Model the fold of this input.
Amino acid sequence: MFEPAYTYGTVQQMAPPVVDGMVPVVTHIPTDKPYVFITIDDGAVQHPKARDLMIEAGVWPSVFLNTKYAEGHKDYFKQLPVTVHSHTTNHPNLSGKGFEFQKQEICGNADFLAGDYGKRPTLFRPPFGNYDATTRKAAASCGFKALVNWTAAVNDGRVQFQVGDKLKAGDVVLMHFRTTFVEDFTAFLNRAKQDGLTPVPLEDFLG
Done:
């Protein structure tokens, strides 16, 4: 469905710097290319059609996994054409929590993912998109390059926009591993195509 825009897995842009011990917050990627980024959270439902959909579309999503959902399902996620990133151990609302609690949730998840997938994740997404300055400091202390949120989301087969009525170059799109995976992923693909955008790997632009 989409031809590769370049050799995926090669760094195209660098992440913003960590400043004052806090990771940068990224919700949109500045780019003059017609690129869009699909991210998939949690890992609660290991849909059997996900791999075929991704490969047939030529799309490499970035996935943000919780330990509580991903544990015991390494074989499923390793066979997907994705890069795995961090989404905490137990999916709590981090905002307002103490540093040690947040660090344990964030670092513990990173340690788990490094053990299962052989590579420590570089990007972090807070559950519900909620974070504070402590979250950014904890994420930096765990070695992350950026905290990633989103500008559009897919739910129940519909793309929902925070601003406007179409996807724009540089948008980061959120969806989840749910029973509606086929409908949601297909809705994203069709919307990207309609808006003249090519999905490319997020980590290539946060090197």
